[in-house]
Design brief:
Elements (H helix, E strand, L loop, with lengths): L1 H26 L3 H61 L6 H10 L4 H16 L4 E8 L4 E8 L2 E8 L7 H8 L4 E5 L17 E8 L6 E9 L2 H7 L11 E3 L5 E4 L2 H10 L9 E9 L4 E9 L6 E7 H4 L1 H47 L14 H39 L6 H15 L3 H17 L5 E3 H19 L3 E7 L7 E3 L2 H12 L8 E9 L3 E8 L6 H11 L11 H14 L4 E7 L2 E9 L7
Parallel strand pairs: 13-15
Antiparallel strand pairs: 1-2, 1-6, 2-3, 4-5, 5-6, 7-8, 7-11, 9-10, 10-11, 12-14, 15-16, 16-18, 17-18
Length: 619
């Protein structure tokens, strides 16, 4: 059965391959189908690539923005929390009345006035804050405690006895603490509280009051706080859908959590152990229970190391990127549909005349000299059809004399016409690119493309002699393009007499000298180069000079350049072809009284072009 199954799979694969090849052949058999397939593939690639790239960029930007904003937010809120905790500590210290309170505690069992001092002290502290639920003062030696709570609009101070308090963990921790304090959280458990604390309490702060002389513990102050003040502080942290917030002590005890199960999963996974004790940062955590990945941003306080932690689901961070990607797919699909329709219409408009022309060509190939292609419009296809008709007509006229020769000649002419290139096509294309750059507000690129287009037009304008003013405008555009390459390293000064602005000079002659300075001076060093373009008039001629402050030309190389001026044109070398061309053009245009001269030393190179004031006389 396995052999039969394998054979059936091979046979089915062969049939599928045959069907696909047949479909591909039918699709690509017609030019219109090829055009539709080509443009559709290009559109899919462009839209798909842009969608993927934009999604990745937005996704990365979303993560970076979330990290930056959350980190700054946690830092500010954690500073407020540290101030809040510091306020608890300050409240627990009697400060200036420390001795009075210690004496009252020592004598409260036998002195009524001492008890009043303690009760008033507890009431004053209770009135000082709105987030207090209860305050306990435990007298260590007598196991007695005083408690002040809010009972039906009254602040009541009561007294009791508790002998089990020294056995509790928080009591032992406070006694052993060098700071004489301990924080107690009610997030995970409300057992081992020791007192009957109000249900609204979320944490307790315990402070040991010791004798200044003997350092013996006299009493323990316990403050039970509700979440009103903390909620107000935490409200400054914006929470999105799925966001959580945790406040954890330096001992890794949770004091404020939005979701206790999530905290327990993070604790059990060990991610909380990766969080540093100081500063801020972020880690990535995968929750296996909910199959979600979280970005855990945290900030640890600089004073006591309390950690403020905010786990953010990556799904929420990527929500904007996902929405953008989905909309891109929808818009891309609509754009693809419209594009296919437009491409189909355009392709048919292109291929329909070609099909008619092809039909007439088939008639002509069978010897039917009545074949004529319809000529519509003024595009290349109409041009080709027109010449086809002319070819058929002329071939019919000369068929009896020189049939074969003329047919070959016409085919050659047709191929030459098809291969003809308009030299202004590149200029028009650059203008189109400049227009698109302006639409996208890419002004620097538009200026560069426009300068290149103007340079190209100047180079192919056909005139050999131009006014110096035109050449200088061209040099300005040329220098602008070079500065895009070299930046501030290239500096140019123009010192040109006004009387020489209309001087007829060879086109691109000054550019050749400037280009030589850039090549042999600016490209050879890493420092700034100053190029000075100057022109001055003499009695019978004008001197145009281009000088640079580069390293100069060695004697051997200068000799090679000057010797190349005397070589025959057929023996010219490619390395110095620009200067040799210019020198030759000057000789052809003005005779031997014109020429190119080079002066060089270690301070730079100056190339002088001498032109008679009488103008061109040898052309």
């Amino acid at each position: 059965m396995c052999t039969l199954s394998k054979g059936a799979v091979i046979m089915m694969s062969g049939r599928v391959g045959t069907i696909l090849r047949s479909m591909w052949k039918r699709i690509t058999q017609k030019l219109v189908n090829k055009l539709i397939l080509l443009f559709t593939s290009v559109i899919i690639l462009v839209v798909g690539s842009l969608t993927i790239i934009s999604y990745q960029m937005i996704e990365k930007e979303s993560v970076n923005h979330s990290i930056a904003s959350t980190t700054n937010n946690l830092l500010l809120v954690n500073q407020n929390l540290e101030d809040y905790l510091e306020g608890m500590q300050q409240l627990a210290l009697p400060q200036l009345r420390y001795n009075d309170i210690m004496n009252a505690i020592a004598n409260e069992n036998r002195d009524y006035a001492a008890r009043m001092v303690i009760e008033n002290y507890l009431r004053n502290m209770f009135y000082s804050r709105n987030d207090l639920e209860a305050i306990y003062l435990y007298v260590a030696d007598r196991h007695q405690y005083y408690v002040v709570t809010r009972e039906t609009y009254n602040i009541t101070v009561r007294k009791g006895i508790n002998t089990d308090l020294p056995k509790l963990p928080w009591y032992k921790e406070a006694m052993a603490s060098t700071a004489n304090e301990s924080f107690q959280s009610f997030v995970e458990s409300r057992s081992d509280m020791g007192y009957v604390a109000p249900q609204a309490s979320f944490m307790a702060y315990h402070r040991v009051l010791r004798s200044i002389a003997s350092r013996h513990p006299q009493a323990v102050l316990s403050f039970y706080y509700n979440t009103s003040a903390v909620d107000e502080i935490m409200r400054n942290i914006p929470l999105g859908k799925g966001d959580q917030l945790m406040l954890i002590s330096p001992e890794r005890v949770p004091f404020y959590v939005n979701s206790l199960p999530l905290y327990e999963r993070m604790r059990d996974s060990g991610v909380l152990a990766q969080i540093g004790e100081g500063g801020s940062g972020q880690v990535t955590w995968s929750d296996s229970n909910s199959n979600q990945e979280y970005l855990v941003v945290y900030d640890a306080g600089q004073k006591d190391g309390w950690q403020l932690i905010k786990p953010i689901p990556y799904r929420q961070i990527y929500e904007a990127a996902t929405t953008t990607r989905n909309w891109s797919y929808v818009i891309g699909a609509l754009f693809l549909g419209v594009s296919i329709i437009l491409v189909t219409l355009t392709s048919n408009a292109i291929t329909r005349p070609l099909h008619k022309l092809s039909t007439q060509m088939k008639r002509f190939s069978t010897g039917d000299f009545e074949a004529r292609a319809p000529v519509k419009g003024h595009d290349e296809i109409a041009y080709l059809s027109l010449h086809f008709n002319e070819m058929v007509q002329r071939t019919e006229e000369l068929i009896n004399e020189r049939y074969r020769m003329k047919l070959v000649e016409k085919n050659a002419i047709l191929k030459a016409l098809e291969a003809e290139i308009n030299p202004h096509f590149l200029y028009n294309a650059l203008q189109a690119i400049s227009t698109q750059a302006l639409k996208r507000e890419m002004f620097d690129m538009a200026d560069m493309v426009d300068a290149l287009a103007q340079t190209l037009r100047y180079s192919i304008n056909g005139k050999d002699i131009v006014a110096a003013r035109e050449e200088l405008r061209h040099i300005e555009r040329y220098i602008g393009l070079q500065k895009a390459r070299f930046g501030a390293r290239l500096r140019v000064e123009v010192v040109w007499e006004d009387t020489l602005m209309e001087l007829p000079i060879p086109r691109l002659s000054v550019q050749t000298l400037v280009e030589n300075s850039i090549k042999h001076a600016l490209e050879k060093v890493s420092s700034d180069i100053l190029i000075v373009i100057s022109a001055e008039s003499g009695a019978t001629d004008a001197t145009i000079a281009v000088r640079d402050n580069g390293p100069g030309i060695s004697e051997d190389k200068l000799k090679v350049v000057l010797d190349s001026f005397d070589e025959k044109w057929e023996d010219r070398e490619s390395e110095h072809i620009g200067l040799k061309n210019l020198n030759t053009r000057l000789k052809l245009l003005y005779g031997d009284q014109a020429g190119l001269f080079i002066l060089t030393d270690e301070t730079g190179t100056e190339m002088r072009m001498q032109i008679p004031r009488g103008g061109v006389s040898h052309v």
